[in-house]
Structures
1.
Amino acid sequence: MKHYFSAMSRGVTTDWMLKELDVPHEQIIVDIAAGENKSPEFRKINPMEKLPVLVDGEIVVTEVAAICAYLADKFPEKGLAPEIGSAERGAYYRYLFIAGNTLEPAFSLAASGIEHPQPNSAGWGDMRRVLDTIETMTPDVDWALGEQFTTADIVFGGLLDFSMTFNWIEASPKVAAYVERIRKRPAYRGTHEAFINMSSGAN
Ligand SMILES: N[C@@H](CCC(=O)N[C@@H](CS)C(=O)NCC(=O)O)C(=O)O
C-alpha cells in the first residue's frame, strides 16, 4: 500500500490510522508548497489535487474518512471497526460520515468568516446546530462507541483535534477533554509532532 501524504495536512489522520493499525506501507511525501500535488503524475491518481491518498494495488482511495474506513475493514483483526451488521455499525457510520460531509464544510466556511445565506439548504444548517451536535456526539468518557477505541474516534475525534489546532472551533470542556484523551494515544503522538508543537505554541 502506498500512502501519499504531507505532515501538515489532513493526511496526519490517515497516518495516525496506519500507525494504530501498525501495518506495512510505503510513505510517499508530497510537497504541497512546491506544488507536487498539481503534477500530471499526481493528478492521474487524484484529479482533486488533494492529500491524503491511499493506493492499494489497483485501488485508489481518497478522502480521510473513506481511507480510514477502508483500512479498518481491510484489517478487521485489529479491532478498529465494529462488525458489519452489528448494532454499533449504525453509530459508527454516523461518526465517519458526519465528519467529512457535514462538519468539515461548516468549519471551513466558518474559518473563512463566511456564513451560508440559507441554513436550511446547507447540509450542516448553521454553527449553532453543528456545535450542539458535536456536543451530543462527543462521549463523556472513553470513546465514541463506548469502551472500545475505533476508527470513529480517529475520524471524528481527529477532525475535532485538527479544528482546535487551527482555531476553527472553540471546544467545550467535554470536547476538550475528549480531544485530550485522543492526544495521549501513543500512535497519535507518533504522527502529530508538528501539530503538538503548534498547540503548545512551539515552532
Ligand atoms: N475532503 C478531503 C480534503 C483533503 C484536503 O483538503 N487536503 C488538503 C491538505 S489538508 C490539500 O491537499 N490541499 C492541497 C490543495 O488543495 O492544493 C479529505 O477528506 O481528504
2.
Amino acid sequence: MIEADQGLTGRRLAPGERFQFACGPDLACFNACCRDKRLPLLPYDLLRLRRALNLPSAQILEQFAELETDPISGWPALRIRLSEDGACPFVSPAGCRVYAHRPACCRVYPLARAVRPGAAGGPPQEVFLLQDAPGCLGWSEPRELSVERWIQDQGLAEYQAANNYALRLFMHPRRTGKVALNQAQTHAFISALYNLEVFRQAAAQEGFASRWGLAPERLAQARGSEEELLRLGVDWLAGVLFGGG
Ligand code: SF4
Ligand code: SF4
C-alpha cells in the first residue's frame, strides 16, 4: 500500500537518513503542488473528509471522488476528482480548505510511504521515498528533518494506524494476485470502507455479529467511534471476500 500515487518516482530514504525541507505560504510555489496530481483517497481519508466537509459520504463520493480500478490489485481505488483546470477541489488562494483533515498523501508529501505486512504477525515494514517534486521550493529551505519528526509535524500517526489496519485486507493470505471484484463485492467494498453511514446500518441489523463471526462487543465500540466502525468494516469485508478475518 502506498500513501501516494502508485506511479510516483523518487529516491528511497535509508533508515535514519535525514532530509531538508520546509513548506509554507511565504514560498512562491505555495499551492502549486495541489494541482495536476493523482491524489489517492484511502478509507481513513474519506472518514476525515466527512469531518472537514460535514457532508454525507455518498455526497463526497459523488462530488469529489472518482472510482478507478487499481492496475496492480484489480480492486476499486478512489482518487480526488480534480477540477477541469487540474486543481484539487479543496485548494483556495489561502491554502487547503480541509487542511486539518487533509488526506494522507498530502500530509506525507514530499515523502511517500510504502508498507507491507511484517513477518510472523510483527509490525508492518515501511519504507519512505523522497518524491520527485519538480518546482517544489521546499527542498531549498534550511530545515533538517527526520522521518519521525515529519510524521509528527503532519499528524500522520492516526492515518498510518488506520492504513496499517487495512493491510490485513489488502494483503490477506487468501488473496491471490490481481483479482477483480464482482458487482456485489464492489458494493461491499465501497460500503464498508468508504460509506460508513451505509455500513453502520448494515451492522445494526439483528444477528450481524454472529453471522460474520465478529465479537458482539465490537458493535458497541463501533457505535461510539467511527475509527472502530472502519476497523469493523475491514474485518467484515475480509469475511465477505475471503470467508474469514
Ligand atoms: S510545492 Fe512544495 S514547498 Fe511549495 S507549497 Fe507545495 S509542498 Fe510546499
Ligand atoms: S486536499 Fe488540500 S493539501 Fe491536498 S491537494 Fe487538495 S488542497 Fe492540497
